[in-house]
Amino acid sequence: MIYDVVVIGGGASGLACALRLVQSGKKIKIAIIDAGERLGKKLAATGNGQGNISNTNMSPSHYYGGGAAFAAKIACADPYQGSRLFDFLFTADEKGRIYPSGRQASSLSDCFMRKISSAADIFLSVKVTEIKKGFSLRLSDGREINARFVVFCVGGKVQKQFKTDGSSYALITPFGHKITSLYPSLVQLKTETKYIKPLKGIRADCALSAAVDGKILKTVRGDVIFTEYGVSGNAVFAVSPLITDKRNSSVIIEFLPDISKSVIKKNIDERKQAGCSADELLSGTLHNKLGRAVIARAKAEGGEIVSVLKNFSLPVFGTLGFDYAQVTRGGVDFNGITEELESKYVKNLFFAGEVLDVDGDCGGYNLQWAFTSGVAAAESVLKRL
């Protein structure tokens, strides 16, 4: 079989690319190949099942990796660009996160399928095992197909339940493409647990800072969830991109970020004078177990309670790994990619999405990159066609 365009990978970037090709009005023979049993499976689970596809607060500071500048260039131009791929309405919440108005992520993949399925050949539960220049693609079921253009949208290395285990990078390294070091991002952190073992399952609204060699890189406000291995929660996901690939890193928790040290200290002093027991000086002010953990650490370290409460630092030893991360940090090196997202080594081979060395913050930034890069790759292909 000979196709004009073969899209390898049926995730967010691959589907966006395929849809743009379909909607071009040109007679294009398209194939989509995916290792999963259905297209858009990961997309249907995004945003805790609600489909957070973008964010109104777009800026270059939300992107990382060798392709961050390029990602910001196309992703930050229009926060609602991705939503225009769909034929239903979207709304933004108080944090700028853009969702389908129905708050159902599966509606995203359903819409793609409705628009694409009759206009493209779809190969499911099959992997590409070899790509030869020209292009000849060998599939895991023994078939071989040919294409004028290939768009490589295979995703990264995270969440292997979605058939993204990182093995597909090997398909393009024979052409000269380099893969930067890969790390899990938007992921739970393994930390020192000495003072937080009793806190398993407790959630707290905190100001959380990420630091490397004692230097604070970023501070965010959000939930921190204490676990048997360290910390999780949206605040942890927000700072993890800055430290998952760093040594000598730590997170610093500020409890009660809306209350000043002086007010807390005055309350503690008043409770002491009223005869409150030492272990209960923070009861009611913090969750009882949190309060006791802060007081116990202050005693052990010979510090003031209020100082520990505002500067509860935990050394970071690692992450929970690729299986639990939301995105991959690292990927195909942008030194081998043109501004049109084409390979510098193989003509008519294009890239989009998480497979490239780009990752973004939590809050819709990664899907915005996936959609905009998928559309950009399609536009580049259409120019050639």
The CATH architecture category of the largest domain equals 3-Layer(bba) Sandwich
Number of helices: 8
> What class do helices, strands and sheet pairing give?
alpha+beta
How would you sum up the global shape? elongated
Give the percentage of residues in beta strands. Answer: 25-35%
Q: What composes the largest sheet?
A: 7 strands, mixed
Features:
385 residues; alpha+beta; FAD/NAD(P)-binding domain; seven-stranded mixed β-sheet; elongated
Protein architecture, described:
This protein has 385 residues and is an alpha+beta fold. The chain is 23% helix and 25% strand. It has 8 helices and 20 strands. The chain has helices at 12-22, 68-75, 106-116, 234-239, 261-273, 288-301, 305-310, 365-384, and strands at 2-8, 30-33, 54-55, 63-64, 90-92, 97-100, 121-123, 128-132, 136-139, 144-152, 183-185, 189-191, 203-212, 215-226, 230-232, 249-255, 312-319, 327-329, 349-351, 359-360. Helix 1 links the parallel strand 1 and strand 2 (30-33).
Please specify the SSE layout and strand pairing.
Blueprint (H helix, E strand, L loop, with lengths): L1 E7 L3 H11 L7 E4 L20 E2 L7 E2 L3 H8 L14 E3 L4 E4 L5 H11 L4 E3 L4 E5 L3 E4 L4 E9 L30 E3 L3 E3 L11 E10 L2 E12 L3 E3 L1 H6 L9 E7 L5 H13 L14 H14 L3 H6 L1 E8 L7 E3 L19 E3 L7 E2 L4 H20 L1
Parallel strand pairs: 1-2, 1-10, 2-7, 10-19
Antiparallel strand pairs: 3-6, 4-20, 5-6, 8-9, 9-10, 11-18, 12-15, 12-17, 13-14, 13-16, 14-15, 16-17
Helix pairs in contact: 1-3, 1-8, 2-8
